[in-house]
Amino acid sequence: MEITNEILAKINKFTRREHNADELFVFEALLCDNEIDRDNERFTKEALTQLSTLFVGKTGIFDHNPKSGNQSARIFSTYLETDNTRKTSAGEDYICLKAQIYMVRTESNNDLIKEIDAGIKKEVSISCSCRRKVCSICGASRKGKQCSHINGKIYSNSRCHTILDDVTDAYEWSFVAVPAQVEAGVKKHYGTLENVDALEKLEESIELYRKSVIDDIRRMGCLKTQGAVGKTFSNAVSNMTLNELIQLKSELISENSKVSSKPQLSSGNMSQFKT
Question: Where are the domains of the chain?
Fold first, then answer.
């Protein structure tokens, strides 16, 4: 980037003394976008707008390692870029957040500057916090009580993912080897690979158990509901949470046991068989 007087003025807001163009190295980076990423999550346009404000002045490090010695650059300006000719997998116009970044030219970072210029150090990733995380299928919150939809699975030709909104803070951005987002990346600290594998196995077990509870409820419910009513009942059951399903199954078992304990013939009906 050409370092204009306007750019120098923006950069010098973050320095203790005014720097000239010869002392600085300036480049741009795509921080994140509204495409569904490798973790099956995506930012809303509103979230990207919030991030564009919060990331001004944030430092750049390596691999999200928060050591002061890892600080290498700083964002001095951001902007959103919209491509109306490109649609995301969620059917929206593609929007990305870009940052203008500066570094001080020193002997110690000469190699890093060369690697950036050569496209070796290219992929970046951000660390932030969002207050709102909802399911793309039903809109249920991903915090606390969970819905039945699983990230990455297809429901009615739509891939389930988590929508990230209401950004509360932006922490830092990093040079990384493999970001979560294909274009740039959002780094999420979910734990080690072993923990992720264990979580996936647990989710599979829970989903199998949930399906078995639904099958039990449908069998018990169909004793009383047939036709269109039975179909409506079946569809309603499919959208319940696991806790709701367990509670419903318990109530059906209790109700059915009361019915089965009653005599098949009432005293009135029995009178006709008397001789």
Answer: 5-189, 196-260
